[in-house]
Amino acid sequence: MKKLRLVGIAVPAILVTSFTVTPLSAAGSGVGNSPPGTQPESAYAQSYSANHVKNVFATTQTSCYRPEDPYTANAGPNGGYSGATPCPGSATGEDTGATAPYATQVGSNPGFATGPSNLAKNHSESDIQVDPTNASHLIGSVKWFASAEGYNHVLGFYESFDGGATWPVQGHIPGYEGWTDNTDPVGAFDGFGNYYELVLPYQFYYNANGSHNFQTNPNKEPNPSQPAEVISIAVRPHGATTAKQWFTSHLNAAGVTGPDFVAPYAPKGHEPDKQWITIDTNPQSPFYNTIYAMWVVFDGVSSSKPFVSIAQANADGTHSDWSAPQILPTISSTAGDSYLLPHVAPDGTVYTSVTNFPGGHGRCCITVSTDRSTDGGKNWTGLAVAIENIPIPSFVGGYANTTFTDGIDNTFAVGTTLVNGHYPLYIAFHEKLTTFANVLLTASYDGGMSWTTPIQVNDNASAVDEFQPNLAVAASGTVSVNFYDRRLACPAFGTTEAKNAGLALDLANPNFPGTPPYGATNYCVNTSIQFYTPGLGALGHNIRLSQHTWDPQLNSPYRFCVCNAAAGFIGDYFGNTTGGSTDYTTSVSTFDDGSNHGHFQQQVVATVAIP
């Protein structure tokens, strides 16, 4: 997410097939859904070792890039902030921009793209994917911050060839350095083992107080030679071994080579956001290697509409031309739609969730439905409402005690095994009825026409916030939901855990001004996971994926400006995927495991066996 959006304006009608909500009972569906119940906090704390979970701090290698618009403010020493850091000169094989501007920076206005290469220190908001041709090959992508104070970042990647044990290749994703930020990391492998990252580069410049100015005045914006915002592609071809090996241009059907733009947006007032991608990797599917790129376009402040474009992947890492963007059907044809999360069923049917905000984000409630295409993305049908009028945490101040902002409220996945003759659809979401947020899960076993009564996923005995769920479905059909979890108190004063968690740096928190949050409850964070059968029967209890509890206040990027410390960032979402018998999660930690002395936001990859 790049900036706060308020949504909820009506637009002309688009026909959809059904709006009826008819939740299936467990008996009526032929499946039994069940929550995991509750477990003592002591059992949860020990579940990391009991389930042989492994953690790897995957993003601690040196990586550098030259920002289009460098930012120099330093909010430290509180919170561990240290401002931008010049590149120490030992990067991971990428082009750091130290000797010349990047290709897309040529044409920048005076004063831009002229600073030194900076170290990427913080890494929050992430995605992770497994190569369908090699289950030991994984690529994660994440926001790669040069300045937490300025919310100054591009997208970066980290790559493993041994099932997540090591991550030897990483760096910023090249090709789109000529915009101030690149955002919303998400990728997908094609059936040949080529990896596609769907990128959202956008321009802004800094006002005197450090806030962001999105004005598209050619005399003021950083780089008038490039569109203000674009939906674009970077492809890492199968067999790549260095950080520089990416394709960011496209030879079109007319024989012209240019940037690999899916959809460029030059004028202010038509602004893309929330892009997502999926690729059909089933060789038996009639739409094998079809690429589906989705995003929304905000028209002004409050209105947004969802779009899809498709292309065909080729074995050499190239692809066909992108189709003209097509608007997707939405419930009641309202605007204010976002969070398109497409997935392909084994039979080639592609589905996406569509989240509708009847008012501003955080102002009460969301409604989620799904769309479906059975002909490779040419035609789309709107399906039934899955969840309706769900109260969610406020965008800013939604969680007690801390200042990080709310992220994406729901997640979507498609099953891999038939249940009652259909591939199941799953939606998990967080809901805040009163004081605390919980994670819930619902399913459809009739192709999205009706949905089960939601069940609670988190099994904490104490009342705390559980939020940002992420779904994945294994080849066996086993469902996993991971989420951020605040049931364990921050480490106690005087302990090694408190020292390594960096709590002494946290002196400006809301509950304990001037005092670190030693022993604070509903404050520090772990990552958890819950497994289910395809019919949503709970497989055991929540499992703790974090070896160490971490403080979300440390080095939390300022979402709007250094002048507003009330809107920090730990990411709007994080990654969950499966490969073979293993579930992979990539999520934030600021803990120092021996490799993170600055308590920066690092991506920790957790692996656990799928039951």
What does the model show?
By secondary structure, this protein is mainly beta. The chain contains three helices and 36 strands. It has a single domain, classed as Neuraminidase, CATH 2.120.10.10. 3% of the residues lie in helices and 36% in strands. The strands form ten sheets. Strands 8, 9, 10, 13 and 16 form a five-stranded antiparallel beta sheet that branches. Strands 21, 22, 23, 24 and 25 form a five-stranded antiparallel beta sheet that branches. The longest helix has 10 residues, at 41-50. It is globular, with a radius of gyration of 22 Å. The two termini are 33 Å apart.
For this entry, give a set of tags:
611 residues; mainly beta; Neuraminidase; 5-stranded antiparallel sheet; 3 helices; 36% strand; globular
Protein topology:
Elements: H1 26-29, H2 41-50, E1 54-57, E2 64-65, E3 118-119, E4 122-131, E5 134-147, E6 152-160, E7 169-172, E8 181-183, E9 187-189, E10 195-202, E11 205-206, E12 212-213, E13 229-236, E14 249-251, E15 257-259, E16 261-265, E17 270-279, E18 290-299, E19 303-312, E20 326-327, E21 337-338, E22 343-344, E23 350-356, E24 365-373, E25 381-391, E26 410-414, E27 425-432, E28 437-444, E29 455-456, E30 466-473, E31 479-485, H3 496-500, E32 526-532, E33 538-544, E34 575-579, E35 582-589, E36 602-609
